[in-house]
Structures are given as C-alpha cells and as structure tokens.
Amino acid sequence: MGSSNSTMSKRDYYEVLGVSRAASDSEVKKAYREKALKYHPDKNPGDAGAEAAFKEVSEAFEILSDEEKKKLYDEHGHEGLSAQGFGGGFTDINDIFSRFGDIFEGSLFEGLFGGMGGGQRNGPRRGRDLRIDLEITLDDVLGGAQRKIEITRRRDCGECGGSGAEPGTEPQTCVQCQGLGRVESSSGFFRVQRPCPRCHGVGSVIATPCGACEGEGRVAASGEIEIDIPPGIHSGNQLRISSQGNSGVKGGPAGDLYCRMAVRKHDLFERMDNDLLLEVPVTFCDAALGAELTVPTLEGEEKLVLKPGTQSGEMLRIKRRGLPDIEGRGRGHQLVQIIVETPRKLSGEAKELYEQIRELNSENEHPARQSFLDRIKDYLKGGSREAEES
C-alpha cells in the first residue's frame, strides 16, 4: 500500500521538466539543465524546497533520458516503473552529481555540479562507459566472429575541439579565483575553501559557448566499430572494448564499451553448456529393425547407426561436434535424442500388417511391458488377499 501511495503522489515527469511528450532528447536535456541550475543547492543554500525540486527534476530526467525507462513510463506510468524497480528517486544529492555530472561537463553549469564534489572535477576526467546488447548465432559461438555495429557516443565537438567555447574564442581564466576553481574565506579563526562563485569551481569562464555543442564540448556522434567475438562465448557474457565509450573531458581518457552477448535460439539445436542437443524423430520400423541415419551438425552432415530395438528417448553421441570451450579446453559433443514416432493414421494395408505384427509379438520381444504387466498382477493379487483378510 505504501508503494502505491507514493507513486500516486508523484507528478508527471513531463510536467516536472516542462516539456511535451513529443520532446526530443536534446529538448529534455536542455530543460533539465535549466531546472537543475534553478534549483541547485549551491544557489539555494538551506532551502529544503529547492533541494526537493532539484531531486524531483533529476528523477524525471533519469527516466525520460533512458529509452527503456521512458517507454515503460509512457505505457504504464509510475506504477509500471515501480513494478520494475525503477523510479525510486534520489535520496542523496551526491548521487545526482555522480550520475549526471557529465551532462554539464565543459558547459557554463559544470561548476555547480563540481562544487559539491571537490576540486577534482576541474581537471581531466574519464568518459562514461557504455553498455550494449548484441545478438549472435550458434555459428558465431562455434568459430568466433567479427561483427560491425553502429553505436552513438559522445565525442569531442568538431567545431570547438572539446573546449565548449565558440570557435575563435577560448575559455577565459576566472579572474576571481585565478583559475583555481576555489576561493578562501575567513570564518573566525579558520580559513575555509569553497567553490568559486563566479566560475562555480571550473577555474575558467566560457564567455561565448559553442553553438554546435551548446558549450558542453562534446556531441553525440554515430560511428561503426568492429567487435571480435571469441569462440565458445555464452549468453550473458560481456566483452570489454577498451576506449570505445564516451570521450573523456578536458583531455581525460575515453570510457570503455561493454557488449553483453545474447545467443539466438537455433531452429534445430539446443545448447547444453558446450554440448548441443538434437532431437531426431524416427519411425517405429526403423527403431525396431535398425537403420542408418543422416543427421545435421553445425559443420555439415554425419552418419549415425540406429541399432535394432532402439527405444524412444535413447541418446546417441557424436564426439567433438559440440561447441568449443571458451577457455580453450576442447569441444563438447553433439547429443542426438531418438524420438520414436507412433503413426497416428494408417492405411488399410498398413493396419493389416500391424495387426499381423501384433499377433506375432511374444513376451520376449517386449520385456519391459511384460515386467510391467507382471507387477500389476502381483499388486492386484496382494490387494485381493488384504480384502479377504479384512
């Protein structure tokens, strides 16, 4: 009940940011920047209402800037997010600075988001890691593969070279803090350092922001990269592609790209660790008399001998026709499970032949069935004796 009440009391996220439901990603980001600047705790010290509003706009941006969460919210509202464990909001202001600080990197607002995180935000910073899902096939798992994918990342702005300043201009050293990003003030016997109120801790001021990146220094750019998929990889395994995430800030290193694998379901084979399972239907006659089967593998066809009297569910094995071990410890096997198919419809002639076979059947030809019938007889006899004794 508590969770339901909390979701009912929440405002519409689009209303919180002041954007329409058709707003683009850039419009959502711009609206968040404006709201975050308005309600930032450094601009509203001691104002509990401003702090609550700051958390609210940050929560709204967290949802509307994430494609998956936004879709869930658009379709099911706050209740849908809550059911999936999203939309819990922020309880700690520092979580917001850590999560969304890079949105303000290189811009006029960066100092505000660096003010509560210390002076380290003033120097080079590593770009954010990116994560994607990649669907692959069993053939990719068998031999490994190279896949080209297109991703969108934040790269240095080509217009300003990552400075955030309009081409032909440069960020100017803050005259109040002399580029340190912090100023000192006296408090009784102590001298206290705090973020520079003029540059907000950046150490420099962008007088004319770059129009291409709106002063951020980075822009979204699509590009193609090649991923090497090792043999034997499993669904859920992650590959780390170094330095292929978002570009760093102020000369910092780029983040990494993490690619999570999802192996597509195969039409014929079921994966069982490094083994492959294939179900093969056979006729009653082939199971009884024996036959030579031609079965598919991932590398072509193989011959299998079906011995006379093969039972439904029996497993045959083709050695080393499974998948390679990801750590290089050999290969698995291909398991072939025999499924004896009983005919559902018989022609008149076939029915007569089966009737003849039934007449010819002896107890020795069906030992499992005969054993079952004998156990039933013994059970029934025992039950009759108990009834007589009672």
Give the topology, please.
Layout: H1 2-8, H2 13-17, H3 25-39, H4 48-64, H5 67-83, H6 93-100, H7 110-115, E1 130-136, H8 138-143, E2 145-156, E3 172-173, E4 182-187, E5 190-195, E6 204-205, E7 218-229, E8 238-241, E9 257-263, E10 270-272, E11 275-283, H9 284-289, E12 291-297, E13 300-306, E14 315-318, E15 334-341, H10 348-360, H11 367-389
Parallel strand pairs: 1-9, 11-15
Antiparallel strand pairs: 2-7, 3-6, 4-5, 8-9, 10-11, 12-13, 14-15
Which outline best applies?
A: elongated
Total strands: the figure is 15
- The order of strands across the largest sheet is 10-11-15-14
CATH topology of the largest domain, anyone?
Answer: HSP40/DNAj peptide-binding domain
Q: What class would the helix/strand composition place it in?
A: alpha+beta
Which consecutive residue ranges, at least 5 long each, have pLDDT under 50? 1-5, 105-121
Helix-strand topology string: HHHHHHHEHEEEEEEEEEEHEEEEHH
Q: Total helix count?
A: 11
Question: How far is it from the N-terminal to the C-terminal residue, by CA?
Answer: 59 Å
Radius of gyration: 35 Å
Number of structural units classed as domains: 4
What is the CATH architecture descriptor of the largest domain?
Sandwich
